[in-house]
Amino acid sequence: MVLAPGTLVNVNDLVGELGVSRSSVREALSELSKTHIVEVVPQSGSRISLVDLNLVDEARFLRNTLECAVTKEMCENRTEDQLISLKKNIKLQEIYLEYNMTDQLLELDNEFHKMLFDFTNKTEIYELVHNFSIHYDRLRSMTMVAVKNLKIVEDHRMILEYIESRDVDNAIKLMECHLSRYRVESDEIKERYPTYFK
Q1: 186, 178, 198, 197: which is closest to 64 by C-alpha?
Q2: What pTM value is reported for the model?
Q3: Which helix (H) or strand (E) element contains residue 125?
Q4: Where in the chain does DSSP place strands (E)?
Q5: Which of 149, 142, 152 is nearest to 113 (CA)?
Q6: Model pLDDT for residues 153-168, shown as the tens digit of each residue
């Protein structure tokens, strides 16, 4: 989201800004086009793709399927040290939320979810999910700024409570709700960023 959806990308500007060769920039843009984050426009160059809610929903489906399974494993096998690490993460989230430090909050949000995968020995799966979730993450980034009543930290706190009490059903139910919040919040996001969507 450093470059807004719809922004034209100038190869020469990127070469100067990044200090790399034109061929490196072109190759990078070509790779990014495979993830649909950049569109190569014939005769015009490239532009940052608009947010495609179909791709967002595919990423949510993948995350939901895998994260609910990981959450179940956490409920069944969590250790006290793992619970302490997750609690530390949430305490920091509370501070960043209080001071409206959205970039740091998003980093800790990612870290919270990554820990669930790490603690269940699913680190490589997390990398797969993370790489596929670029469109979903753009929407999450906008949510941090556009949505007034963020439920992120509250959700994480409750998910952790369910994991700690080994309440599999409620942990999974809340994880599903947590990963689908963008559907409810998308109207606020579209109102704030009307030109960012397909």
Answers
A1: 178
A2: 0.88
A3: helix 123-132
A4: 8-9, 38-41, 45-48
A5: 152
A6: 999 999 999 999 999 9
